[in-house]
Design brief:
The chain is an alpha/beta fold. It has helices at about 5-15, 25-35, 55, 70-80, 115-130, 165-175, 180-190, 210, 220-230, and strands at about 40-45, 65, 85, 100-105, 130-140, 195-200, 205, 215-220, 235-240, 255-265. It starts with a helix and ends with a strand.
C-alpha cells in the first residue's frame, strides 16, 4: 500500500521538508532521549518522505534512513539528495552492523504494518543494531483506543462517548471536495473488514487512514509488555498521543497509540 503512487505522492506533498512531531507522545519521547543520543548514529526506519528527518538532524548529523517502499525512498531523495536513504526491510537489516546506532526511530505506527509474528523479529533486529547504551523509539496503535473498529459510516469513533460535530464537518467537506475518497473508503472497508481478527490482547483490522486501505496490527499494554520482553528490550517510558505517561503495569488503557522508549536488556 505504501508503494502506491497516489499514497506516496500524498506523503511527499504533506511531509517532505516538514519539521513537525506526529503527536505529543512522539515529541515527549524524542525530547527525552535527545540529550543521551546527541552526536550518535541515528537510524530513521520507515522514513517515508522525510517528516522526521529535520527533527533527528537536530540530535545528530550522523543520519541514515530506510524505507520498505521504493516510491517513498525516491520521494525522500528528491528532497534530501545528500542524505543516506535506502530501500530495506526492517525484519532483516542485513547491511547494518551490530551495535551501530545510538538511536533507532520507527515512527508513525510503522511497526503495525507488520504481522504479529514479525514484530518480535523487527524489535530483535533493532536490539542487535542499537549500541549497548543506545535507545529505540517506536509507536504502535492500541486495540482499546478509538482507531480500532472504525467504519466509514460512524457518527463517533469507537470508545468515544460523544459525537464530534467538527470531525463530521471535516469529513463531509473532504468527501465533497474529493468524492473519490468516499468511494475508496467504502470500497476498501468492505473489502478489508472480513480480515478483522480479535485475538484478545491484540488484533488485526482496517485503519481509517488512507481511505481504509491499510490493514494493521493493534496491540495492548499486556501484549506490548510481552513483545518487548520476548525481543530482549526493557521499556524506559511509554507515552500516549497526548504526551501522558502510560502505566505499563496496567491491564488496559484507552490511549489511541503508544510511543515506546526502550533499550536492550
Amino acid at each position: 500500500m505504501f508503494d502506491d503512487e497516489r499514497i506516496a505522492a500524498g506523503y511527499e506533498r504533506l511531509n517532505a521538508g516538514a519539521t513537525r512531531f506526529l503527536d505529543a507522545g512522539e515529541q515527549r519521547a524524542l525530547v527525552t532521549v535527545a540529550p543521551r543520543c546527541r552526536g550518535t548514529s541515528v537510524l530513521d526506519v520507515g522514513v517515508g518522505a522525510g517528516r522526521t528527518t529535520a527533527l533527528l538532524q537536530l540530535i545528530s548529523d550522523d543520519y541514515q534512513a530506510i524505507d520498505y517502499s521504493p516510491r517513498m525512498v525516491a520521494a525522500f531523495r528528491r528532497h534530501h539528495p545528500d542524505l543516506d536513504c535506502r530501500v530495506a526491510d526492517a525484519r532483516d537489516l542485513v547491511d547494518v552492523g551490530d551495535g551501530r546506532h545510538g538511536l533507532i526511530l520507527f515512527s508513525n505506527n510503522g511497526i503495525d504494518a507488520l504481522a504479529h509474528e514479525d514484530r518480535v523479529g523487527v524489535l530483535g533486529e533493532f536490539r542487535r543494531v542499537v549500541a549497548a547504551d543506545g535507545v529505540i523509539v517506536f509507536s504502535t496503535l492500541n486495540k482499546s483506543g478509538p482507531s480500532f473498529g472504525e467504519t466509514p459510516f460512524q457518527l463517533r469513533r469507537p470508545t468515544q462517548r460523544s459525537v464530534s460535530l467538527r470531525a463530521l464537518a471535516v469529513r463531509a467537506l473532504r468527501w465533497m471536495l474529493e468524492p473519490g475518497s468516499a468511494v475508496r473508503s467504502v470500497r476498501n472497508f468492505r473489502a478489508h473488514r472480513r480480515l478483522t481478527v480479535d485475538h484478545g490482547r491484540w488484533a488485526v483490522g482496517p485503519l481509517a487512514a488512507h481511505d481504509f486501505a491499510p490493514v494493521v496490527h493493534f496491540t495492548s499494554v499486556p501484549d506490548l509488555r510481552d513483545t518487548l520482553a520476548e525481543a530482549g528490550l526493557v521499556p524506559e517510558a511509554v507515552f500516549d498521543e497526548r504526551g501522558q505517561a502510560v502505566d505499563m503495569g496496567s491491564e488496559d488503557c484507552t490511549a489511541d497509540s503508544f510511543t515506546v522508549v526502550a533499550h536492550a536488556a
